[in-house]
Amino acid sequence: MSQLFLFLLVLVPAAMMLDFRYHSNREMERYLLQVNASNPDIAHLYSVGRSVAGQDLWVLALGVSPRRHTVGIPEFKYVANMHGNEVLGRELLLQLVEDLVRGYRGNETWAAQILNSTRVHFLPTMNPDGFDRAGTNCHLSQGRFNGNGVDLNRNFPDAFTGLPAERDLDDANREAEQVRAVIGWLKTETFVLSANLHGGALVASYAYDNSNGGGELVGQASLTPDDDVFVHLAKVYSHNHASMHQGGRCGDQGPFQEGITNGYQWYPLTGGMQDYNYVWAGCLEVTLEVSCCKFPPARQLPALWADNRKSLLAFIRQVHLGVKGRVFDGSGAAVQGAVVEVTGRRNMRPFRTDKHGEYYRLLLPGNYTFTVTYPGHEVLTETFLVPYGPERNSALLHNFLLRRVAAASASSSLLAATTPTWTLAMLLAFQSLIS
Ligand SMILES: [Zn+2]
C-alpha cells in the first residue's frame, strides 16, 4: 500500500503541475511521457518521425479512445514550433494538455465534452533542432530553420506550382525530415481541423497562402471554395483571444481587421503547410500567430496563456461544424474513395470517404446540396439543412446510401464518378500519394 502511495506521489504531481517557463526538448519529452503514463485511459503518446538530429517528433493524443480512431469522432490537431524560434506555441500546447487532463480528472463538463466528442492530437514541436539553436530576439530568425537549413513552412508540395509527383514526395533531398513526417502523419489519420502555431504577429491567417493567378485570386486575396468557413474559424480564434480581434499592429505587421487575414493577401508563400493540409488532406488548417514577440520573456507566459486559453478551447470545438457520416454501397458496406461534393464548392481535390467509409465536411449552418459519386453506383443528390454543431458537440450525422446501377450502364457511371473539377491526371497523382 505504501509503495502504491509513493508511486502515485511520483506520478501525479509531475503530470498536474506544469510550471510557466520554457521547457527544453528533453523536459518536454519527459512531461509528455508522464502524462501518458499517468492517464492511460485518455492519453496516447506516439512519434511521427525524427528531426535531422534524430529527436523524436512526439504527438500526444487525448480522447476517450486515445489509441485509435472511432467512427463518428473527429480527429483534430494542434502543431507548434515549426519555426524553431517561434516558441510560445510549445508552452501553450503543454498548458492546454495540462488543462484538459486536469479538467477531465476533475469531472469538469467542458473538458469531458471535448474529450468525449473529439480526439485531439498535440505536436508541441515540429522543429526541436531549430529550438535548440533559437535566439531569444523578438524579431530575428536564428533557429527558424530545421537542421538542414530548410524553412519547413516553405517545403510542402504546392498545388499551385504543379502537382507533386510521387518521386518528389519520396525524394530525401527535396523534403525535410519533418515535412515527410507530417505528410506521413496526414496519411494515417483523417484530420478534420487543425491549427499551426507561430509567433511574430498577432493574427489568424487562413488558406490559401499561394495562388497561380487562377480563379482563386479575388482582388488581393487567394480564396478557397470554403472561404466562409475559414473566415469563421479565424474569427473564432481572434474573437475569443484577449486582444487579437482588436487587430492592432505588432511592429510592422498589421493592422488586421478583426485580427484575421487571408494568407496570400498578407504575403504570398509557396510550399506552406496550411495549403497542403487543405488541398491534399481535406483538413482545414489555420495559421495562428500568437505573439508579437517570437520568443517572449518567460515571465509573460502566465498572461499569454490567459490570453489564448479560451481561443484554443473554442477552436477545437469548431471541429463539430457541418456534417459527418459514412457512405454505404449497394450491398450495405461502407466504402472508401466515394466523392462527397457540396454544390457551389469546387474543391481542387474533392473530399472523399476514408478507409472507414467516413467523410467530414465543415460547413456553416444553412441548406446545402450534396452529390455523392462512387463507381458502379448511381449518382446520389440530397439537399438538407445543416445546424450549428459546436454547441451540440457534434456535426450533423448524415449517412449516404448508394444504389448500384444496372450492369449495362456501369461504365457511364464510372465516368460520372470523375467529376469536372477533378481531372484524370490529378486523380492518378492523388492515388499515388495515398498509396
Ligand atoms: Zn512562423
State the main characteristics.
Aminopeptidase; Immunoglobulin-like; 8-stranded mixed β-sheet; 4-stranded mixed β-sheet; 33% helix; disordered C terminus; binds zinc ion
Task: Explain the layout of strands and helices.
Layout (H helix, E strand, L loop, with lengths): L1 H15 L8 H14 L4 E8 L5 E7 L12 E6 L7 H18 L3 H9 L1 E5 L4 H6 L32 H5 L6 H12 L2 E8 L2 E6 L10 E2 L2 E2 L4 H14 L19 E3 H4 L6 H9 L2 E8 L9 H17 L5 E6 L10 E4 L15 E4 L4 E8 L6 E7 L9 E2 L2 E2 L8 H8 L6 H11 L1
Parallel strand pairs: 3-4, 3-5, 5-10, 6-9, 11-16, 11-17
Antiparallel strand pairs: 1-2, 2-4, 6-10, 7-8, 11-13, 12-14, 14-15
The structure holds zinc ion.
The site of zinc ion (ZN) has 3 residues, from loops.
Structure description:
The chain has 435 residues and is an alpha/beta fold. It has 2 domains: 319 residues, Zn peptidases (Aminopeptidase, 3-Layer(aba) Sandwich), CATH 3.40.630.10; 112 residues, Immunoglobulin-like (Sandwich), CATH 2.60.40.1120. The protein is built from 13 helices and 17 strands. The strands form 4 sheets. It has an 8-stranded mixed β-sheet, with helices on both faces. Strands 11, 13, 16 and 17 form a 4-stranded mixed β-sheet that branches. Strands 12-14-15 form a 3-stranded antiparallel β-sheet. A hairpin with a 2-residue loop joins β7 and β8. α1 crosses α2 and α3 crosses α11. The longest helix has 18 residues. It is globular, with a radius of gyration of 22 Å. It starts with a helix and ends with a helix. The relative contact order is 0.12. The C terminus is likely disordered. The structure holds zinc ion.
